[in-house]
Fold:
Amino acid sequence: MYSVNTQSETARPFLTWQRILDWAQEHYRCRTFAKDEKIPTRPGLLYLVQRGAVRLVGEAQVSATPSNSRLPRINSEEAFLGFVGAGQPFEIVSQSPFTLQSFAHVDQTAVIWLYWHDLDNWPHFRREVLDAFRYQHQRKLLWLSTLGQRRTIDRLLGFLTLLIEEFGEPCDEGYCLPWALTHAQIGSAIGSTRVTVTRLMGKLRQRGLIRSYGDNLLCIPAESAVLQR
Structure:
């Protein structure tokens, strides 16, 4: 049985949210992005998603030597690392040869940015930010556990389940992810290929473990999910 959080528990974790919005607008610390637009970020700043969703992508520089050459060639490999939903914070950490980038996953995604010392003005808000980061850390541990599964289909189902547990919304079919994901993005997240993901998604649908809803949204059937209250 799956467990899906209510939106009120995950979408608005900050009690002083309106005060932060007013402060961000006053100090020109808020910007709205179009779908798939890259969000300019840098280490050391704290980012808050006001509305929409942010897609985190990791990029690694990999050295490869072609068979017809003695000189190594540097290739970039990208991996989908998850979402940051409305009301949630995120940071960008960069360490060679890895870089982390963020993109607006849906249109009209609004992001606020602060320096950590700005939180000195709101001690309670700082605690809520740290609590939110601890929650994200726990979810990442579950994600790593899922990626440790030997069979690709188990990694796929576990990955989809974790996403819908965290961001899922009630629908006629059960609980669905409110944003679309391409099979290539899913493949990059679980260490597989787009073709393999497409084939395994078909198997999961045949077994009734996942469904499609609306505009190609992923859904977990109601009989397989339990709503936490």
